[in-house]
Amino acid sequence: MKKIRWFRLDTAALIFPAIKGNNWNNLFRVSATLKEEVDPSVLQTAVINLMPRFPSFYVKLRKGLFWNYLQNIDSPPAVREDYAYPLVFMGSAEMRTCCLRVLYYKNRIAAEFFHSVSDGTGGSIYLRTLVGEYLRLRHGITIEYNDSVLDPGDKPKVYELEDSFSKNAGKIAGRELGRKAYRLSGIREKGDFKHLITAVTDSGILHAKAREHGGTVTAFLAGVMLQTIIEIQSEEVPEGKEKPVRITIPVNMRRLFGSRTLRNFVLTLNLGVDPRTGPYTLDELIGNITNQLALKATKQNMAAEIASNVGLQKNLFIRAVPIDIKHIFMKMGYSSYGEQLGCINISNLGVVECPDPLKDYIDRIEFIIGPQQTYPNNCSVSTFNGKTFINMIRNTGGSDLERRFLTKLVELGIPLSVESNDIGGSESQCTASSAE
Question: What is the number of other CB atoms lying within 10 angstroms of the CB of residue 320?
């Protein structure tokens, strides 16, 4: 393959440079907690070794006359100790150096990405490959490479680098519209501090409980979150004045279109109910999410949604507009449309697989999406080796949402071990029979 020096931003990635601000940008993290302490010098060698295999990850953000783009970096990022809290703000100066961070703390290896580089699926493949290379160097293990842990010695594949949005756009454009949703609020923390609460549970118990209520794990958790936010809104807003309550659920398009790209290929759906139409039981809320997913997350509907975004990108007039003017209109569009239809993001990475013998060295794999521009709270889920990790992050004070949500899960018969980074800036842990 010809050596690549730069990448056009994929269709989903174009918006992120336009809407980033002085104290916010769209970041996400994937991390692996090992059963031993991390050796940073070995980790640095692993980062170096992966550079030729992942050219679309070792990039910096550049600004052209008409569009932003990603340019390959000449030197790999230096691994850093994870010194503060997850997803520390990545400023423009850092993104002009590298849009990827590799961090370590005690037993944990974490990779943090500016979202223009990739999504959770691509990021998790990079992380697992990085951990695999680290363990190969550290312990001399032999790895059975597959699609979840790539062979660092292979050349990057063309399909891994493609813009799957442009490739799979439909002929007819379609866009979701609706009333603006209720918004969670709070006083933003000073210094961009982010509170993280992690609830750990047995994945078998959670899956069985979801089936008992007629949904997948994603639909079940979204239904419980809907019920929680509806209750919060009812205490703040007079009856009859409520706004719709919707959960933003990212859909991995690779499954629909057979893509194997390592770049972004996710679209979001805003699914929920209007409380003004009457009360809902939990099973009715879960059923609503299940039915809406079945209706909207189809290849045809998603292709039409892709076409709406790709069509704007290909418009000759828009292409000719200088980038600074583009950014003004992109910010305006995002402000009026981008996050206004949802309340909170629930992103489920699903079951994270690792080949033997990697799983013998790994205790947990987690996924965290940072707070959105106007969502002070976000929720990310991953499952590894029989455990499900529910990460709830926020950049505001007050833990009412987490307390209510986790209490409901416990009351439904789901045992939780709850951890937080709030006590003295370090993690604490308790086993919950009640989440209060």
Answer: 8
